[in-house]
Amino acid sequence: KGADLTGANAKGAVFVMSSMTNANLTRADLTEATLTGADLRNAILEGTRFCRTTMPDRSINNSGCPR
């Protein structure tokens, strides 16, 4: 909870069932990360890269993939 992961390289990281409430993920790279069941309430996601990222609801987020 409340972790500062600003600018973190979390490519391929696994955050299954993690509590990431109030975490700062500004400009973090979550390419191919797995967030299944993670709690992202009040997390700061400004500029976070999502590409082939498995979201808490198991959907795939490709919003930050290079075009």
What does this entry look like structurally?
The chain is largely without helices or strands and about 70 residues long. The protein has no helices and two strands. The protein has strands at about 55, 60. The protein has a two-stranded antiparallel ribbon with strand order 1-2. Strand 1 and strand 2 form a beta hairpin.
Number of helices: 0
Q: Which radius of gyration do the C-alpha atoms yield?
A: 11 Å
Percentage of β-strand residues: 5-15%
Which structural class best describes the helix and strand composition?
little secondary structure
**N-end to C-end Cα span:** 33 Å
Shape: globular
Which H/E pattern describes the elements? EE
- The residue ranges in which pLDDT falls below 50 over 5 or more consecutive positions are none
Strand order of the largest sheet: 1-2
Work out the helicity level: under 10%
Main pleated sheet? 2 strands, antiparallel
Q: How many extended strands?
A: 2
Mean pLDDT: 96
